[in-house]
Amino acid sequence: MTACTLRLAIALSGLLLLAPAAFAVNQTVEQKWALMDRCTKMALQKYPDNTPDNYAKRDAFARQCQRQSRVPVRQNLAPPGTAQAPGAPTE
To answer: How confident is the model over 27-35, as a mean pLDDT?
Structure first.
């Protein structure tokens, strides 16, 4: 084997070792996004009207659900200038 062929073989074997780890990370990220989307869907079902008050309540509900699900909390779901839901924590 030449030095170039040996380097190529080592590089390819390294990639084969990294593929399962990358797949596992990708699955974890997709699961978190699915939980975040589920929280948003529940918030839309609970507060379906497109009013400033419902935007704020929907935002607060989705954030609380995401916190309880232990996933990253999406920011600024409600359009700018909408009222904040009563009792909602400030970020």
So the answer is: 87
pLDDT digits (tens, 9 = 90+) for 34-90: 999 999 999 999 999 989 899 889 999 999 999 999 988 877 655 666 555 555 555
Cβ-contact 42, 59 below 8 angstroms: no
Token pair of 79 as six digits:
């359009």
Domain ranges, residue 51 = 28-91
Rounded to whole angstroms, the Cα distance separating 86 from 91 reads: 14
The answer to whether position 22 is within a domain reads no
Which of helix, strand or coil describes residue 71?
A: coil
Distances in Å between the alpha carbon of 28 and those of 6, 24, 25, 36, 38? 34, 6, 5, 13, 15
Number of domains in the chain: 1
